[in-house]
Amino acid sequence: MRISELSRRAGVPLSAVKYYQREGLLPEGVRSAPNQVDYGDAHVHRVRLIRALLETGGLSVAATKDVIAALDAEDAPLAETFRVAQHAMATPRTADSTPSDAARQRIATFARSQGWEVTDDNPGIDAAARALDGLRAIGFEAPDSYLGAYAAAAATVAAADLRALSSLATPDQVAELMVVGTILGDPLFAGLRRLAQQDVTRTLFPTDAKRAPS
Amino acid sequence: MRISELSRRAGVPLSAVKYYQREGLLPEGVRSAPNQVDYGDAHVHRVRLIRALLETGGLSVAATKDVIAALDAEDAPLAETFRVAQHAMATPRTADSTPSDAARQRIATFARSQGWEVTDDNPGIDAAARALDGLRAIGFEAPDSYLGAYAAAAATVAAADLRALSSLATPDQVAELMVVGTILGDPLFAGLRRLAQQDVTRTLFPTDAKRAPS
Predict the structure, then answer these.
(1) Chain B contact present for A140, CB below 8 A
(2) Local confidence pLDDT in tens for the 214 residues of chain A
(3) For the HTH merR-type domain, which residue ranges apply (chains A, B) (predicted)?
(4) How many other β-carbons are positioned within 10 Å of the β-carbon of residue A178?
(5) What SS3 class is residue A36?
(6) What is the ipTM of this complex?
(7) CB–CB of B212 and A135 under 8 A?
């Protein structure tokens, strides 16, 4: 198919498809005539995958490239593919936003107190520790019961992710869902959390209470 | 205090403090002499808040501005402050990433089947629907049991957030934690999820199984 049909079938604008190609995310098609390049079903699948990672997952182009390279390395151990997906988080990590040692320590200790076997280079430690630091910056010292509720929720979701992986037939499908599910599980959860929040916080402002005067 | 001490006390680089000021996120200090501007404790608090939203929360400058304006509007109903925080999600929403109607419908129906009272403009519907579309793009049709596990986790976290809010003394503290907790709860959860994932997926590749040949 031509690139215009690739765009149509993937449901992604032509300008975006060309952008993916310029950024080296999408392999070239096959030149079938001096003025014509042909694309196949694998390209349609790849365009949809890139879009999901970049736009829904909020990954950078560089992170998307890493994830796709890991998926394409077919002889790589699944554990390595998974490691790349885990590190490709959408949260920005600028040079000066290193979390405090105290927060890192608390998260690592807390994870182990849940019986989780985790390594010190798991990027979740820094992500969660930065959030603790941010909450502390406004004067909220998250109690253990608060962290515990978040950890229980995380365990529920991780178990559901694992069950979904176990339901798949081929190792390639497992690798792809492992990567995409790790990344898109974040906005899926964040969206459902906004919905659950709206429900529980109805009780907080039953009469549209004003904040001031207190 | 001078701006250099403001930077030191907030634990944020001077260049970042000046950037916040240029972007209109941080109010001016008080000019105490022709060549000197004084800052107070409120500025330290504000710099920390801005940093938490921008860097840990991953918000854009525009979204951070909206959130801060909502916090500063002291006579606004809490429900309105909350609505602004709910809409200030870090996930990018580009013009061409509208979720499918089928996915939106499924999320809205699913939320109501959980007994949640939600409105159609809740931004969580689009965020979760886009994630479903992304999973579908790689051929994974999330079953109800998968969505149900994510929804149960979201309800657990929303209840913990509510308990944390109920523990606070003043309406201003409630407003601030409502906003910052809504935004930083996402990376806190995402981080703990990475840790829980590492634990449960150990069972998936006990011997560093290769993907190919399958």
Answers:
(1) yes
(2) 999 999 999 989 999 999 999 999 998 888 888 888 999 999 998 999 998 888 888 888 988 998 898 888 877 788 888 888 888 876 555 545 789 999 999 999 999 999 999 999 999 999 999 999 999 988 899 999 999 999 999 999 999 999 999 888 888 888 889 889 999 999 999 999 999 999 998 877 655 555 554 4
(3) 1-70
(4) 28
(5) strand
(6) 0.87
(7) no
